[in-house]
Amino acid sequence: MFKKILIANRGEIACRVMKTAKKMGIRTVAVYSEADKDSMHVLMADEAVCIGPAASKESYLVIDKIIDACKATGAEAVHPGYGFLSENEEFSRRLEDNGVIFIGPKHYSVAAMGDKIASKKLAQEARVNTIPGYNAEIVDSAQAVEIAKGIGYPVMIKASAGGGGKGLRVAFNDKEAFEGFEACRNEARNSFGDDRVFIEKFVEGPHHIEIQVIADSFGNTVYLLERECSIQRRHQKVLEEAPSPFIDDSIRKAMGEQAVALAKAVNYQSAGTVEFVVGSDKSFYFLEMNTRLQVEHPVTEMITGVDLVELMIRVAAGETLPFTQDDIKPNGWAIECRINAEDPFRGFLPSVGRLVKYRPPETAEGQVRVDTGVFEGGEISMYYDSMIAKLICHGATRDQAISRMRDALNAFVIRGIDSNIPFQAALMQNPRFLSGVFTTAFIAEEYPSGFVATDVVHDDPGLLAALAAFGRRRYIDRAVQVSGQMPGHQRKVGSEWVVQMEGKDYPVVVTPIPGGYSVTHGADRYDLVSDWKFGELVFRGTCNGTPICLQLERIGLLYRVVHFGKQVKATVMTANAARMLALMPKKLPPDLSKFLLSPMPGLLREVSVAAGQQVSAGEKLAVIEAMKMENVLKAELDCKVKKVVASPGESLSVDQVIIEFE
What we know:
With 662 residues, the protein is α+β, with helices and mostly antiparallel strands. The chain folds into five domains: 100 residues, Rossmann fold (3-Layer(aba) Sandwich), CATH 3.40.50; 70 residues, ATP-grasp fold, A domain (Dna Ligase, domain 1), CATH 3.30.1490; 240 residues, ATP-grasp fold, B domain (D-amino Acid Aminotransferase, Chain A, domain 1, 2-Layer Sandwich); 105 residues, Glycoprotein, Type 4 Pilin (2-Layer Sandwich), CATH 3.30.700; 67 residues, CATH 2.40.50.100. Helix content is 27%, strand content 32%. The protein has 17 helices and 41 strands. InterPro entries: Acetyl_CoA_COase_biotin_COase, ATP-grasp, BC-like_N, Biotin_BS, Biotin_carboxylase_complex, Biotin_carboxylation_dom, Biotin_COase_C, Biotin_lipoyl. Its EC number is 6.4.1.3. Keywords: ATP-binding, Biotin, Ligase, Lipid degradation, Lipid metabolism, Magnesium, Manganese, Metal-binding, Nucleotide-binding, Transit peptide. Its cofactor is biotin.
């Protein structure tokens, strides 16, 4: 077994690999960029080596620097995690040439599966189901149209070297095929330096199902069941679960055996994932093979009881698999929510900055797991991807796993930046998701206009008002205990209060009960019992005898309540104060319609207009870069530029003025 390994990655996956390595008694080496010098993975490692500036292309993607770090520290092997160099054939080969073991597949397997056209041909030779299509090089748009007509619409036009949704279009007619081919080829050339494009049949009613495989160097290959990955937004996975609620045992077995056949065809060693698209008729077709550990690997670990990282390390060290296919039996259900630094109410724009508060939910063996690479007080950088953590919940049934996920999301505290927790919480309430009947079009169909605040509807707003009243009354009861009060002049606490929340008044009556308060609103009564104290962000207790978990905090004169993704800020006052407040004039918000504001923190890459310029609706105004993504800001109306306030190269904060209009 290895004595020391280097993890050529950062963030949560670097920390995840280190946990297993430490469990195995293996020393770890972290590599880090200048922006990551205080990161969790650096603090967790036994040794750490700085490999360059913040930009990935100058640090985490530089093969020579990783190899130099191995030589300097004596690391015998490298685990690549996912992303960065994890599927880079040259990286695997050069490590091998330098006497360092790559904890992953051999370079020839990476090469065979890295090219989507070549991998599809290999899959056909291995008798793996493949989608009808045209896999040779396509010369121009006219040829693309003829091929599409021959296959039959709809078709998918896809870059051979594509990934992450880039270089991909679906065409339903000749015009869309013609335009889609050119767009895909241009995107592929710009993103991957490879403009080859192929066309295949677009499967209707599709599910994205992937099979986890693990193979050793002695010819033993096993599939570890499947993962359902159909909940995607713009071809990026949002949450995953295992097993799939859609496929049955016979389909599972057939897909698993084909995945094993493909792995053996390329002499695969290590963990890998074979992705399939499954149609509404349960026909399934090979998509691609990911020759690395997947982001969503924990759901497989939760239902099989295996540690995939440990298996990867042991296989790389020359050990055999400790089990056979017959030993793999599913145990319960697991769901993973990706917790990202993005604002779901602003089109999921990246959110960067300081984690003022970061309190993941409590973990419980076999029930709740949190894989993370950040800590309270740390910074979410604009240079890397938006993932903060992965929240994984397991249950004996799918319903129990969902219930535990709801509670865990309720208890996940993040302050200082925005996160997609409200969106994940909304998914956990969505009837269609709960039914298990959905496709890859789920998010586009359920949220056609994007995710907005009105999509997060609490089924009992009276409960939120009652909780705000609970917080206020506990504060008052603490305040009246102050010493030195004059006899006969102590404050008398009344029972009638008004909670003002989202423009509506909720008259409530609050009376003490053992361990808490009984709050009534009209015909509804909420008996709330909890030992919650000020300064605590998570409220745990009971409501009418039923356990409840949510977030409750006092912010100045307001009380913030967060439950099932719904967040409200409530004012709680006496009935008399509410009557007085109703007489006060309303303060109108400022008019910001004449300003272009930055919707996110980021680097202003480009300002496309100048003072005095007339601008048409839809015209590009500026480009902001954040978390490896370029975000183009366009004019919503015809207008004239009065003044350009911000300059290219400037770091912007949220709502900072970029351009002023006349």
